[in-house]
Amino acid sequence: MQNFFTVAVPLMASVTTTTATLPLFPPPPVSAPPPYQIIKEFETKTAIREVAPEKPKEKRLICKGCNSNENATLAYFQGIGIKDKNALATIMGNIRQESTFFPNICEGGSRTSYHNCGRGYGLIQWTSTNRYYGLGDFARRIGGSPSSLHTQLRYLTTEVQWQHIENRMKIPGKSINRYMNYAYSWIGWGYHGARTSYAYDYASRLVQVDV
């Protein structure tokens, strides 16, 4: 028994001595952003959440295989409230018959400026004196060119002949033949030509897309 205690006591003392001599280090400091940085981050996140929701897409008709003037004309008439495919196709068919969508075309087919034509000019071949010179007067008032597509589309929809049929063209669900009857009092053509065939062709090429 004496030998046991003689061995154990020095061992315990050795353990105690070793433990006591270990150096004690403080925990490393935890870095934290300054208070103003936290506030700044919070404000940034809040601003991102308050972004307005995306506007719902609008359905529009476009013309497959059509040129830029045709699609610009189609978009313009939709913009003033004409949505029916047959009504739009009828308008397009008439303009194609009259001018093939060249705003600088003169009666007979030559391509020239408004001032070099004299009569039968533009998208719907404005021929009568008051309608032809009305285009020039309108262009001067708005600072546009009487030979440009945009000016002629705007002028077209200010004419009394168009305004007489506009509300009827906005009524959906009618046939191309019915809309074509309305269009006669607008354009007053002397030669019908292929305008109805053109209208049916456009109706087959108008497709709805989201914009």
Give a written overview of the molecule.
There is one protein chain. Helices cover about 55% and strands about 5% of the residues. With about 210 residues, it is mainly alpha-helical. The chain has helices spanning about 1-20, 35-50, 70-80, 85-100, 130-140, 150-155, 160-170, 175-185, 195-205, and strands at about 60-65, 205-210. About 25% of the residues are buried. A two-stranded antiparallel ribbon has the order 1-2.
Please write out the topology.
Elements: H1 2-20, H2 35-49, E1 59-63, H3 68-79, H4 85-99, H5 129-142, H6 149-156, H7 160-169, H8 176-187, H9 195-205, E2 206-210
Helix pairs in contact: 4-8, 4-9, 5-6, 7-8
CATH class of the domain at 72-210: Mainly Alpha
CATH topology of the domain at 72-210: Lysozyme
Strand order of the largest sheet: 1-2
**Low-confidence residue ranges:** 4-18
Work out the helix count. Answer: 9
Helix content bin: 40-55%
Q: Choose one word for the global shape.
A: elongated
Number of strand segments: 2
Which percent range describes the beta-strand content? under 5%
Mean pLDDT figure: 86
Classification by helices and strands? mainly alpha
Biggest sheet overview: 2 strands, antiparallel
* Secondary-structure arrangement, i.e. CATH architecture of the domain at 72-210: Orthogonal Bundle
Order of helices and strands: HHEHHHHHHHE
By oligomeric state, this entry counts as: single chain
Q: Kindly report how far apart the N and C termini lie.
A: 99 Å
- Evaluate the radius of gyration: 40 Å
